[in-house]
Design brief:
Blueprint (H helix, E strand, L loop, with lengths): L19 E5 L6 H8 L22 H4 L4 E4 L3 H7 L4 E7 L2 H14 L5 H7 L3 H6 L10 H7 L2 E6 L2 E7 L6 H14 L2 E4 L3 H12 L24 H10 L1 H29 L13 H19 L25
Parallel strand pairs: 1-2, 1-3, 3-6
Antiparallel strand pairs: 4-5
């Protein structure tokens, strides 16, 4: 017997023509993989080509506001400030200690040339954690991306100054703001449950489900938490205490939404054979149910044509496609 989860609102959200979808990519949360998958949903001209905050300087705000899909290392408050229409936000979270260590590994590899990152690159992990100048640049990154301050200036519609400070007025206010923002997001996924996150994402937006996916930007060598001195590990945990609260909130939200999706799929598309399945459903079973649902939705909402005309700039949903060109 499957018990219906207690939820307060429907999971599904059909993107309207005027909606602007923003994937807030918190560094080292498998966001590069997810961003690549989502690019197959949109046509090339609908996707803002910039991924980092400095790239927006010198750009026309009207042009930025004309896109439909935005993905990148942009904090919540930045997109809320510059996008003119309804912003539908999604994000991925990762266990804070693992995310912190992965971020440090990325910095040490030299994947970013920003001045602050150059400073950190010359430090050891122990120095990054204990140095009062260095540790604030890395701690509680979830909270700072979800609630951090920005400064923006524009002349004649052109961005002349833009700075993501990723600072908050007070720790308590920052955490509360981050929690409120996260609760309002249409989708929150978890790096540790990436396949399940993909299932939930495609369910929410009525996209074709994906079972196999290419993993992008994955480091070969990673610093493992269980190999650290306990005092160093305790310090990292203390630096990311607020992120731990955000992650726990996101994980609880994910569990409820995933259970709701499972219940609805079994109720509407399940067969007698599914009644014998144990929860959580195996990926192949979940994929089959999502495929059934997608086919029903697609036939109900789309008009079929005998001679489709596709260009290489158009997004095509599903797995295995080459990314759109442009």
């Amino acid at each position: 017997m499957i018990i219906k989860p207690h939820v307060t609102h429907p999971l599904e959200y059909s993107l309207m023509p005027d909606d602007q979808l923003f994937f807030l990519h918190i560094p080292k949360t498998a966001g590069t993989t997810l961003a690549g998958i989502m690019e197959n949903v949109f046509n090339r001209e609908e996707i803002m080509p910039y991924y980092f905050t400095p790239e927006l300087i010198g750009q026309d705000l009207k042009t930025i506001g004309s896109y439909r899909y935005f993905r990148g290392h942009f904090p919540h408050n930045l997109m809320q400030a510059i996008l003119p229409r309804r912003v539908v936000t999604i994000t991925m979270l990762r266990k804070p200690v693992e995310r912190f260590l992965s971020h440090v590994d990325q910095i040490k590899r030299g994947d970013n040339s920003a001045a602050a990152i150059e400073y950190l690159r010359g430090l050891s992990l122990e120095e990054m954690v204990t140095n009062d100048k260095a540790s604030p640049l890395l701690q509680n990154f979830h909270v700072r991306m979800l609630a951090g301050d920005i400064s923006l200036q524009a002349e004649n519609g052109i961005v002349t100054h833009l700075k993501s400070h990723l600072t908050i007025q007070s720790e308590a206010d920052g955490l509360l703001t981050a929690q409120a923002n996260l609760a309002a997001y249409s989708f929150v996924g978890l790096t540790e449950r990436f396949q399940e996150s993909l299932f939930l994402l495609t369910y929410v937006f009525n996209w074709r489900p994906i079972l196999d996916y290419p993993s992008l930007n994955v480091a070969e060598k990673r610093t493992q938490a269980d190999g650290l001195d306990w005092r160093l590990l305790a310090r990292i945990q203390a630096l990311n205490q607020q992120d731990e609260e955000i992650y726990n909130q996101g994980a609880a939200l994910f569990d409820v939404r995933y259970q709701q999706m499972t219940y609805e799929l079994l109720e509407q598309y399940g067969t007698r054979a599914h009644a014998r399945q144990k929860l959580p459903l195996a990926p192949e079973v979940m994929f089959d149910l999502l495929e059934r649902r997608y086919e029903v939705w697609y036939r109900r909402t789309r008009t079929f044509v005998n001679n489709p005309d596709l260009s290489m700039n158009e997004g095509i949903q599903g797995a295995g496609w080459h990314p759109v060109l442009g």
